[in-house]
Amino acid sequence: MAYFFCQNTILELNHATAIIRGLTYLLVDQKPELVGHLRRYYDQRGSDIFEGSNAIYELWRTLIEILEDTALPKVYLLVDVLDECDSTLSGIFLKLLLHERLKSSQKVKWIISSRNERHVKEYLESPSAAYDTSLELNSRHVAKAVNAFVAFKVSDLTRQKGYTLETRKLIKSYLMRKADGTFLWVALVCKELERVSARKALKAVERFPTGLEPLYGRMMELVRQEDDKEEFELRL
């Protein structure tokens, strides 16, 4: 399996060339005997295979050769949050992907996730796409998975912080009610709870609002408070 998580705020993670380069690297890292495909193109083209306007096509050709290599068993390729990428380059990537899917072998399975952005939906909902599912239309299944994640994270926090049975139950209940089907929200809140003593955990968790944007606002407020505290201590 190879995967790539797109992130708009990081230049190295927000374009399609980086996706293909990252997937190729992970496949070669897992099966070093595949590096010959990369080496051959590098010997021919030099660093152009990684950089420049044609890099996406050079790397794609290399990736396809690797995927067709008989040394590679069945493989899953995951690209998460594709909408975080530059829309022009992600469009090129999806065109390449859908064209290749028409003739790809059964051993290669692509999994692409994205928000419902128009430029992504147009490709993923085309007849060439094997199957697409909307998390918004399957919210019950998402909520079930998020609740399982909450249970796991609270159990982990209980081991770390020594929560009482009552504290564990109340925190778990609060997170399940406020998560709103968002794994990232749960992960961020639990990360903050790692910094709070068991005695203060209940009050702390209730200060975190539902939704990512309000949560980001709350976290920035905590950062500012911490900075103000450090500045005050320095003055003293």
Helix/strand-derived category reads mainly alpha
Mean pLDDT score: 80
Strand-and-helix sequence, N→C? EHHHEHEHHHHHH
General form: elongated
The portion of residues forming beta strands comes to 5-15%
Counting DSSP H or I runs of 4 or more residues, the number of helices is 10
Query: What is the spatial order of strands in the main beta sheet?
Result: 1-2-3
What profile does the largest beta sheet have? 3 strands, parallel
| Strand runs, count | 3
Rg (CA only) = 22 Å
- Give helix % range: 55-70%
Low-confidence stretches: 229-236
Distance between the termini: 54 Å
Describe the protein in words.
The protein is mainly alpha-helical and 236 residues long. It is built from 10 helices and 3 strands; from the N terminus they run βαααβαβαααααα. It has helices at residues 16-30, 35-45, 55-68, 87-101, 118-124, 139-161, 165-178, 183-193, 201-205, 212-235; strands at residues 2-5, 75-80, 108-112. A 3-stranded parallel sheet has the order 1-2-3, with helices on one face. α4 links the parallel β2 (75-80) and β3. It is elongated, with a radius of gyration of 22 Å. Residues 229-236 have low confidence and may be disordered.
Short note summarizing the structure:
The chain is mainly alpha-helical and 236 residues long.
